[in-house]
Amino acid sequence: MSAKIVGICLVGVMLSLLVVGVVSATPVRHAIQVIPALIAFLAVVRRAGWAVHAARPLFLFWLFIVLAIWLYLLGIANVVSGRFTPAEVTLTVVIGASSLWGLVASLRMPSAVTGRTGFVTSAVFALLQVGALWVSLQPAFAQR
Prior knowledge:
By secondary structure, the protein is mainly alpha-helical. The chain has helices at residues 2-23, 27-33, 35-45, 51-73, 86-108, 115-136, 139-142. It is globular.
């Protein structure tokens, strides 16, 4: 059951990010950002032994981003800046809830790999997500 929840939560994150792209008129930028989650989702669907290790850092990453946005919106910290429409603010709640629920489910999900393989998989997916965000912020994609 945990694998199903992890998959659903990855879809929640991906769809929410894609809707943010539509709402903010930056669909290409957000499509780039969901690529690591899409790969992790496919791994979950295929029941790959390393899938849980791919999903965890993605949930943590998006939870951190959502928390940074909310700290900014509440005037607590300026980790991020910008204007956020009501739709985008609502979607941060969906992304945050999906990430938190997915993280909890991933911690309950058994893994066929442990130790070094799990750590390397998590590190690779964390880097993939950071890289996807970085690429999406480049001038060629930032306003698309």
